[in-house]
């Protein structure tokens, strides 16, 4: 069984430690996708983070491996190493240039979505006026497909996500998103979005964030409940996990430099509150409890293994090779 976390967040600072990742390895996770930047992070911050993370991963070859092929993931697992990849949340770091996609892929970015909550010249965000995929956005989808990168629709507006899924020649994922039918939050995805994702052959990965799960103290049972809804709607082949755990580190300030307005990116009217103070994460240790929680929701052992990572493995085999 391959265990796959489709999205996690270390501090976006070049001095950030990789130590929190050891908790994933201890819980039997095989692959973790680490965020390296969002639309509010300027290019100099994104590139400094990528460079630093790559250097730290390479410095600990007994623990980590940066991968972009399933064969590399399997080799890392056989050697007892945690396989890692990067993800980019938004298209602003692409500078409006489709050719930037291949560059990021060469640096270890294995998946991307185009809008972080707000609209831009490529795509529409989930906390902004409805905007479809732009002509530039269609070229970006083509570039993502050509680079063998996972096309992600998390944080993307409803109309735009449907446009992306119609345009993509490869399966599309939501790396960390939950069903709107269970919790009415703008970050959650509608049944129409879930069905469209499944129609591409893609996967909806359940987030472990409290506001999106509808739980003040989120746990494995909450995650399993949301997974069961998606499976009931489109089948177990289209459910995965991206707990979206955000780590902090004392003494590190990873806020974007310059004028930064968190209220713009995470509007209080959308349910975030001051400085995201109400957000809670399903803990890393819940990974050891998700399998029995899925089985308690009625998943067979084989189906639970698909949710734990088998489905994302299938999609990666199609996209990465």
Automatic annotation (TrEMBL):
MF-aspect GO terms: metallodipeptidase activity
Span of the signal peptide: none
The keyword Hydrolase is annotated on this UniProt entry: yes
InterPro entries in the cross-refs: Metal_Hydrolase, Pept_M19
Keywords annotated in UniProt: Dipeptidase, Hydrolase, Protease
Broad EC category: hydrolase
The organism's place on the tree of life at top rank: Bacteria
Single Gene Ontology BP annotation: proteolysis
EC number: 3.4.13.-
Pfam families: Peptidase_M19 (PF01244)
Protein name: Membrane dipeptidase
């Amino acid at each position: 069984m391959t265990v796959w976390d489709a999205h996690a967040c270390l501090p976006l600072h070049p001095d950030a430690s990789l130590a929190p990742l050891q908790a994933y390895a201890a819980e039997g996770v095989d692959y973790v996708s680490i965020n390296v930047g969002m639309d509010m992070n300027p290019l100099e911050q994104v590139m400094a983070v990528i460079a630093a993370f790559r250097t730290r991963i390479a410095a600990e070859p007994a623990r980590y491996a940066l991968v972009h092929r399933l064969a590399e993931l399997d080799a890392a697992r056989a050697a007892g190493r945690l396989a890692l990849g990067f993800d980019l949340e938004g298209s602003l770091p692409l500078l409006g240039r489709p050719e930037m996609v291949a560059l990021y892929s060469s640096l270890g970015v294995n998946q991307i979505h185009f809008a972080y909550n707000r609209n831009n010249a490529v795509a529409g965000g989930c906390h902004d006026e409805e905007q479809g995929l732009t002509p530039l956005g269609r070229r970006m989808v083509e570039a993502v497909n050509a680079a063998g990168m996972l096309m992600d629709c998390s944080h993307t507006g409803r109309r735009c996500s449907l446009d992306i899924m119609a345009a993509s020649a490869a399966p599309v994922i939501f790396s960390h998103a939950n069903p709107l039918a269970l919790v009415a939050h703008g970050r959650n995805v509608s049944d129409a979005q879930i069905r469209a994702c499944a129609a591409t052959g893609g996967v909806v990965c359940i987030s472990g964030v409290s506001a999106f799960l509808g739980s003040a103290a989120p746990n494995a049972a909450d995650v399993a409940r949301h997974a069961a809804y998606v499976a009931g709607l489109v089948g177990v082949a289209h459910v995965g996990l991206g707990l979206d755990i955000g780590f902090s580190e004392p003494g590190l300030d990873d806020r974007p430099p310059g004028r930064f307005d968190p209220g713009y990116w995470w509007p209080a009217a959308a349910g975030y509150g001051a400085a995201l103070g109400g957000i809670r994460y399903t803990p890393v240790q819940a990974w050891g409890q998700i399998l029995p929680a899925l089985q308690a929701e009625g998943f067979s052992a084989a189906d639970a293994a698909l949710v734990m990572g088998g489905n994302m493995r299938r999609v990666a085999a199609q996209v990465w090779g």
